[in-house]
Amino acid sequence: MIWVLWVALTTTAAVGLAVRLGYRYQSGRCSSRRKLLGQTVIITGASAGIGKETARDLARRGARVILACRNTNKAQKVADDIIRTTGNRKVEVRQLDTSDLSSVRKFAEDILATEKALHVLMNNAAILPMTEKKLTTDGLELTMATNHFGHFLLTNMLLGLLKASAPSRIINVTSRQHLARQTFDPDDLNYEKTPYPGCTAVYGDTKLATVLFTVELSRKLRDTRVTANSVHPGVVSTEILNKGGGTRLLPYYFGWPVWLMGKDAELGAQTLIYLAVSEEVDGISGKYFVDCKPSAVKIKTKASIDACARPHKHDHSRVSCPNAVVCSHHQESKTNDLAKDPVLAKRLWDASERLVKMKPEETHC
Question: Comparing C-alpha atoms, which of 78, 116, 70, 74 is closest to residue 97?
Fold first, then answer.
C-alpha cells in the first residue's frame, strides 16, 4: 500500500514538474532594453506579486515609480527593497484604495497637483470576490469596485496628464477568466436585478469589464498618442489568492497547483513590462496581450455585426452569442466574443460613468 502511494505521489510530482517547466518555457519574456530615464510611472497594487516585480524592473530602467497601494506600510517596505536592489531612489508610495471612490479622487487630485508628467499608468490592483455579495460605502459591489470602477475613475481623471505627456501608455491587467463569461449586463454591475452569481462568475465579470473598458478607451484615445492595452499575465503564484473575502479554503484548493505549475511573480510580470517599455508596441492600442503577444482580436464593426446576424440572429440586447462557435467573425479572435463588441463596450462605459458619479471636470476623453 505504501509502495502504491509512493508511486502515485512520485508520478504526480513528475507530471506537475513537467507541466511547470513546459509552461514556463513557452511563457513570454520582455527582451527590450529601453530605458525610462525622465519618465513617471504609476502602478496600482504594487505592494506584492506582479505589480511589485514590474515596479522593480521599471525602476531599474531609470523610471520614477509611484506605488499606488492601499496598505502604505507594506508598500513602503517594498519601495525600500526596490531602492536597495536597483539603486534608483525615485520610488515612492502613495495611498490608494481602488474600492473607495473618495480615495481614488484624492489620489488623482494629489497626482495632478504634484506631477508635471505621467508616461505609464498601470491598473493592476485586484481582489478575488466574496462568497456573498458585499457593497462598498459608495454602494458598489466590492469586487467590481476594486477591479473595475476604481481604475475607470482613476484613468479618466489622469487622462489629461497622460495626453500632455504623450506618447504615453495605459496598461489594464485582466485575466483569462473573462473567457468563461457568456453573458454580460452593463446595467446590472452591482447584481441588483439578478442573484449574486458567485466567486468565479463575479471575477470573470470584472475582468471582462477590464477588456471592454480598454476597447472603448482605445477608441476614445484615437490620434492622441496615448495607447491603452489589456494584459493577461498568465497563471501566477502570488498573494491574490489570500485577498478578498472568499472562503479561507480557496488558497488551499487552488494555491498549491498554482504554486506547483504556475509562473513566479517575476515571470508573470513580463508582459506588463513589455507593454510599458517595448518598441514593438509603440502606437499599438486596443489589444489584448498574453505572453508578450497580442491575441488575434478583431474589433467588430457594424459590418461584421451585420454579417454575423445573417447566418444567425445576433441579439445585442441580450449581449450573448450562443452561435459564436460557427461564426467566422468570432473565430478570428482568441478572446471572448463579448470583449470585442463595441456596442457593449460603450454601454459599459456609460454605465460606469453613472455609477461612479463622474463629474464633467473629471473626464478628459
Answer: 70
Q: Residue 95: phi, psi to the nearest 5? A: -75, 130
Phi/psi for 43 (5° steps) reads: -125, 120
Report the alpha-carbon distance of residue 94 to residue 106 in Å, rounded. 10
Q: In the prediction, which pLDDT does 265 show?
A: 84
Q: Which three cell numbers stand for residue 55?
A: 515596479
In the chain, which residue ranges form alpha helices assigned H by DSSP?
A: 2-26, 49-60, 72-86, 101-114, 142-144, 150-164, 199-220, 250-261, 265-268, 270-277, 302-309, 328-331, 342-355
Looking at the predicted structure, is the pLDDT value of residue 179 above 90?
no
Q: What is the pLDDT of residue 82?
A: 98
Grid cell locating 247 = 472562503
**Dist. CA 74–CA 23, nearest whole Å:** 31
Q: What is the pTM (predicted TM-score) of this model? A: 0.81
Q: At what angle do helices 101-114 and 150-164 cross, to 10 degrees?
A: 10
d(CA 341, CA 305): 9
Q: Which are the contacts of 177, defined by CB distance < 8 A and separation ≥ 6?
A: 200, 203, 204, 207
* Whole-number Å distance between alpha carbons of 339 and 134: 26
Give the distance, in angstroms, between the CA of residue 264 and the centroid of all CA atoms in the same chain.
17
ω into residue 233 within 30 of 0, thus cis? no
Q: Which of 23, 25, 203, 274 is catalytic?
A: 203
- Cell numbers given for 291: 505572453
The predicted structure's pLDDT at residue 322? 31
DSSP code string of 175-190: -GGGGG-S---GGGTT
Which pLDDT belongs to residue 234? Answer: 75
Q: Using CA atoms, how far apart are residues 303 and 38, in angstroms rounded to an integer?
A: 44
Is 25 a residue of the active site? Answer: no
Which helix (H) or strand (E) covers residue 289, if one does? Answer: strand 288-290
